[in-house]
Specification:
By secondary structure, this protein is α+β, with helices and mostly antiparallel strands. It contains 24 helices and 25 strands. A hairpin with a 5-residue loop joins strand 20 and strand 21. The protein is globular.
Length: 638
Amino acid sequence: MPNRLALEDSPYLQQHKDNPLDWYGWCDEAFERAKKEHKAIFISIGYSSCHWCHVMEHEVFENTEIAAFVNQHFICIKVDREERPDIDKHYQELHMLLNRRSGGWPLSIFCTPENKPFYAATYIPPYNRDKSMGFSELTAIIAEKVAQKDEKLFQNADEISGFLRPKNEPVQATALNDKIITQFLLQAQHNYDSDHGGFSKAPKFPHTSTLETLMTLDRLRPNTTIRTILTHTLDTMALGGMYDLVDGGFCRYATDEAWLVPHFEKMGYDNALLCALYAKAGLLYENEHYLQVAQESAEFMLRFMMEDDLFYSASDADSEGKEGKYFVYRYDEIVRALEQCGVSDIDEAAKHIGATPEGNFEGHCILRLSSPQRPAWFEALKEELQKLRLARTYPFIDRKVITAWNAMMIRALLIVGKVAPKYTTQALKSLDTLLSTMEKNGALQHSTLIHKAPKIDAFLEDYAYLCQSLIEAYQSTLDERYLITVQRYAHKALEHFYEEGKWYFSRGAFPTLAEFDDGTYPSALAVMVDVLLSLGMLIDPKYRRFAFKTLEYASIKLMKTPIYYPKLTEQAIRYIHEERLVKGSTEQLSAIQKPFSHPFVLLKNDETVEGFLICGENSCYSTTKDPIQLDELIRSTI
């Protein structure tokens, strides 16, 4: 018989509706019952495409013996971290506090009957395993201590709750200067993997915002070392493995150093950010391969992850109960596909795409090219391999619509639209749909399902990324409506989340400070600074003062370890260096095709200007009627 989660909208919570555990969604009723019956609280946080969440569900939450005990002694609450990032951030901070290392998913939290947390872990096996305590043994200990009202446990919970409250401590500041660039580059070089690209060992994440900041620095101060780090990483990521050469789009991360074996889930935010990154790099370096990867990623999102102009949040790593089953191929399947394409040297072709009889993943083959140059027969092979996938079960798709993630994808499409206008058309349609769907009674909302009314108020990330996409829409169309709309949302963000240089991610059930660092995607605080600096140039310098106060609040951390905060570091560098505004008529500005070599340039339509007028924050410098001269003129004014 289904539990209470059958009544929830979240696809992740729906996945757990048939568990024998007596789950609640996040609600007052659960906490009131825990207090009334003096039962410990177990909170489990995850998301629908999380592989280890599925493992823990199968091993622990579907175990009837464990469920019988836990139902008797605990109140169990399931949370979708994509639906409630505020709750997730609160308890991730708890995990860091208690374990001195970052958490992840599934996140497992135990609390007193008064909802004061005292224990945090991620995946927990069902029974004692190696040196890890099992869920069965752990819950037995906790149930006994809570029943006996163990004084030390409750005292620890009180102390932990005090540490978790946001502090209003005075903040020291330091001057922001160009040393931040030197420090960032030194730290990026230190972390750089010269063999495979990227900035870490296994597991390997794309670190999109670090690459974006390096691209900005290469424009500001052209540097062969920076460009090598950037292009080497872009080249190696796109060879395959973490990048899906058949359907397009990126998986969340690679489990190895060489980007070969991915964790096969595909997240909307990763594909939005990487699509934008490859498009910008393709435009800047006139690299057709990068533009192809960007367009393939955009096509993946449009074909597999969009409905009625809105984008889904994620697709699963697993299908038919096995990780990666949809994505990988038997060697004989690849050989037959190559034969169908008329390839003469089958062995050499198979070798070029990483296919061997023994396979490179559990006896199967993950496609990965041996060089960025795709063979002439590759497109035909891709079609044959796509046909094979059509006969397979596609991984589960979480059809949740998240404002911030949709805004990221819309911005990416606008950037790709600079080389293929159809993407701009789709982006503007999606933006209109997002705005009409996610505003309720004048308030922005965080998430919903397609064709359902949203129920959760927006967080800082929703305002920040939506504002950023609106500015990109204005830069692409020069339609003043987008500027008016972005001002409205920026004002609401300042009103709801800003406090003397400090930003809150949420001011609701859990007042949570916004992070400086880039986690799974760039910091909402950093994106908000990006928005305010743009508005400061396009509308009114007053917005720059809010941006400066935010940078000042983070300045000591930024100057010491900028590599931890790449997006905010990029904005600090932008604030230090002069920005430029190019004014002209809509028709004239639309004729500008290539990106400027200076990274901090915005366009603003002004029908009174003949030709192009180049301006700074407080004055204008020069005019020209020749768009080809613009780049050199801008450089001459810096």
